[in-house]
Amino acid sequence: MTLATGIGSMPGDDARDFDEAVRVVLGEVSGLPHLPELPERGAGGHMTGRGLAIAEGLGADVQPAGWRLTDAAGADLRRARSLLAQDLDVFEEQTQGYAGPLKIQVVGPWTLAATVEKPRGDKVLSDHGARRDLAQSLAEGVRSHVADVRRRVGGADRLIVQVDEPALGAVLTGGVPTASGFGRHRTVHPPEASAALEWVLDAITESGGEPWVHACAPGTPLDLLRGAGARGLAVDLDTITAAGHDQLGEAIEAGEIVALGVVPTLEPDSPPTDSAVVDRVLRWLDMLGIDPAGVGDQLVITPACGLAGASPSWARQALQTCQLSATHLT
Predict the structure, then answer these.
(1) Which of 160, 199, 210 minimizes the C-alpha distance to 33?
(2) By C-alpha distance, which of 130, 131, 135, 115 is closest to 55?
(3) CA 234 to CA 7: how far, in whole Å?
(4) Which of 145, 147, 174, 242 has the fewest CB atoms within 10 Å, i.e. the most exposed one?
């Protein structure tokens, strides 16, 4: 059965908006609901702050340039942890009686390293030892986070953990700016990139979760993600390269999951109908030479990316369109 879900982020900037986001998710993509994220709530609601809140053994605080590692947890990190706990409380309450698959999201180690500064400035990405320690701290935190979600939502018989890596492509190609903005950090070579991802993805698997990676930036090497242990790939159909199409076809043939982003993140002038989305997915499968009848639950329909920048009405409609499309593809 083809499922539908959201990538993670939803519009809103306060507790009432989060409560409504959970209701929308549980109502519109009930076959595979996800824990919403509301980046507009500030540093603690953004993926970086959320990732630091999950990581274990780290101190951090927000500086003018963004999140920076510190000797002890500052007020901003304490608020981020509190916000995550409050969100999980609400999610736990609203999922009472739910049974089925569930998805949560966490920032990946390379996007975290590209967005967090060392204690004395510049990105963690600039220091080999610092980025290794950050990735390992994230992996340990993910273990605890998965266990916590499992305890809170006991009916989740399949817990998917989506690792968000929007910066991975830039990390691998030397495209992340230095603190001055005049230079670029050195390229991280694929073996090191894969190793850090493996720590996090292995932590998910060992905790009983199912590891997916979301990478919507053009040119992200999907084979590297699969080699690191991803059992699901969440991608934006509009940004996939020719090589990427082949790698997605190989993933499906290997029995892995492809979450295909085919519904616009922002409301277009002419919103696509579910029939148009279905036609587009079928054309894509035909291009790959894959029989739609044999895909089943290996294909998941999603928006192209997160919905934080969308209006509440479009966020709901986008998820509705994903669900209707998935139902027609089943």
Answers:
(1) 160
(2) 135
(3) 8
(4) 242
End-to-end CA distance of the chain: 5
C-alpha separations of 170 from 91, 186, 189, 228 in Å: 34, 10, 12, 18
Task: Report the run of H or E that residue 216 belongs to, with start and end.
Answer: none
Q: Which two tokens stand for residue 41?
A: 């709530």
pLDDT at site 219? 81
For residue 250, give both structure tokens. Answer: 């190989």
Cβ pair 150, 156 in contact under 8 A: yes
Q: To the nearest whole number, what is the mean pLDDT of the chain?
A: 96
Cβ atoms of residues 265 and 304 within 8 Å: yes
SS3 content of the chain, % helix, strand, coil (to 5): 50, 20, 35
Q: What is the DSSP string of 29-57?
A: STTS-B--B-GGG-TTTSHHHHHHHHSSS
Token reading at 52: 């630091």
Q: Which amino acid is at 166?
A: P
Identify the pLDDT of residue 147: 97
Nearest to 215 by CA among 255, 185, 254, 251: 251
CA distances to 40, 188, 236, 304, 323 from 263, in Å: 22, 32, 9, 6, 11
The stretches in the chain having pLDDT less than 70 are: none
Which 8-state DSSP code applies to residue 294?
Answer: G
Beta pairing class for 299-303 and 257-263: parallel
Distance CA 103, CA 143 (A): 15
Residue for token pair 């850090």: 196
Parallel/antiparallel/unpaired status of strands 59-63 and 66-70 = antiparallel
Let me know if 99 is exposed, middle or buried by CB neighbors in 10 A (0-12, 13-18, 19+). Answer: exposed
Predicted model pTM: 0.96
Residue with the two structure tokens 């148009």 = 276
Contact (CB, 8 A) for 229 and 202: yes
Are 234 and 215 in contact, with CB atoms under 8 Å apart?
yes
